[in-house]
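Reopening this one. Same input as before:
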Amino acid sequence: MKCDVRAWHSLPGAAALQHVDSSEAGLGAAAAAERLRQAGPNQQREEAQTGALSLFLGQFKSIIIWILIAAGIISGVLDVGAIALVLLEVVKLVKLARHRKKEASMTPPS
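Same output, byte for byte:
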């Protein structure tokens, strides 16, 4: 393949095929084997799953989470138990939403 400043995917079809040294018929077996040897399989690497403790501790990087936790503790100390429970539940929901958003962004579309 040629190295060019212009991105191959922005070229017209025939020019893009020429740029990547291919044709409408595709690569021959020998050329495909050579490219596989050079570049490896066209797959994303599986990343190690993050442990539960690591996920839990990672949620406390946000100042908003700390503010909500502090408000929950203060509410609990001031004997406003219902508000304290609501604030702590909001913290859990925020953490869950962040985790799901992160997982969705890393999952390939089906």
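So the earlier flakiness isn't reproducible anymore. For the record, The chain has two domains: 8-39, 52-106.
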